[in-house]
Write a structure and sequence with these properties.
Elements: H1 3-29, H2 36-61, H3 69-85, H4 90-114, H5 119-141, H6 148-155, E1 157-158, E2 161-162, H7 163-181, H8 183-193, H9 195-200, H10 205-231, H11 242-252, H12 264-283, H13 288-328
Antiparallel strand pairs: 1-2
């Protein structure tokens, strides 16, 4: 195991330990947090956020960012509700929604990898397009209710575990296998480390960038379908909070915003932690704007740890080495 892998493992273990401590401690002061119904709600929300974070992680690994995921989620949900309301079977509507996500992912890919626009600007632009289309479509069709069998997938479970969690775990396993066992994963990390060096080494950088944004569009569409199934309908604004939350989940999980370093499972751990924090704040009656403030602070803190952590570790090691040399002199 490399030093980077050990650091990511330690970060994920720290998040898991913090989660366990939070459940034990907060359960004493916020009684409703540790109830079965509330914990099922937490893991269901975390499953949806994790799926968005998977695609976001892949994009960040290339050194980019995808700000369009929230708009894609909203547009996919509204599209699926409109299609089902028009008489299309819900499985076909979900396939159509995935197609919408892939289309926006491909648009991001072309703008970033071919037209060479900065990812922040490119995906911010497509976010506006997706959000505008969602508002327009919702105004035309209203908010029809999804079929009960689809709603049951979003709200029921098996053996005490929501179906959405099984879906997120299955997607994580597939992406982890592809990312770890194929040359695509190696090329993805190499592109994030240094695009110029990767290109000179024979890595198809444009193709790698394109694939990351397309997968991000597909995972955002999947999350949009999951959210619509959970709510039983769709709103043109329901995906809006997920953009910041997905970035926060990735960063809290130790994904390096500068590219090249991070793990999908760690981003999922960050999603569970973030959703739990928001749930606790909700139970305590904290206002939504304060919750956004806490999320922003967590992002800043996580980035500081990512950037300054190695510097601080080296400084501490240097001090300890000097003390050891002084004692042995």
């Amino acid at each position: 195991m490399t030093a980077r892998q050990r650091a990511a493992l330690l970060r994920a273990a720290a998040i898991a330990a913090l989660m366990a401590a939070m459940v034990l401690l907060v359960g004493q002061f916020v009684p409703f947090f540790a109830t079965t119904a509330n914990l099922e709600n937490v893991v269901s929300q975390a499953a949806i956020l994790s799926v968005v974070a998977f695609g976001m992680t892949l994009v960040i690994l290339t050194g980019g960012i995808d700000l369009s995921v929230g708009g894609i989620m909203s547009l996919v949900g509204v599209t699926e509700v409109a299609l089902v309301g028009g008489g299309l079977p819900w499985p076909a509507a979900i396939v159509a929604g995935l197609g919408v996500g892939a289309l926006f992912g491909a648009a991001n890919a072309v703008i970033v990898s071919r037209l060479k626009l900065p990812p922040f600007i490119a995906t911010f632009g497509t976010l506006g397009i997706a959000a505008g289309l969602a508002l327009y479509l919702a105004d035309l069709v209203g908010r029809p209710i999804l079929p009960p069998d689809l709603v049951s997938i979003g709200n029921e479970g098996l053996l005490g575990m929501p179906y959405l969690v099984f879906l997120a775990i299955g997607l994580l396993i597939v992406l982890e296998l592809v990312w770890r066992t194929t040359s695509w994963g190696v090329h993805l990390r190499a592109t994030g480390d240094n695009q110029a060096v990767a290109r000179l080494s024979g890595v198809p950088v444009a193709r790698v960038l394109s694939s990351a944004y397309i997968v991000s569009g597909l995972t955002a569409a999947t999350a949009g379908s999951m959210l619509a199934a959970r709510l039983g309908t769709a709103s043109p604004l329901q995906g809006e909070p997920f953009t910041l939350s997905a970035v926060a989940a990735c960063v809290i999980g130790g994904v390096d915003l500068f590219g090249g370093r991070g793990y999908l499972w760690a981003a999922s751990a960050g999603a569970v932690f973030l959703v739990s924090v928001r749930n606790i704040l909700n139970l305590e009656g904290v206002q939504p704007f304060m919750q956004d403030l806490v999320t922003g602070l967590l992002i800043i803190l996580a980035v500081l740890v990512t950037v300054q952590g190695p510097v601080l570790r080296d400084a501490i090691s240097d001090v300890m080495r000097r003390e050891h040399e002084g004692r042995t002199a």
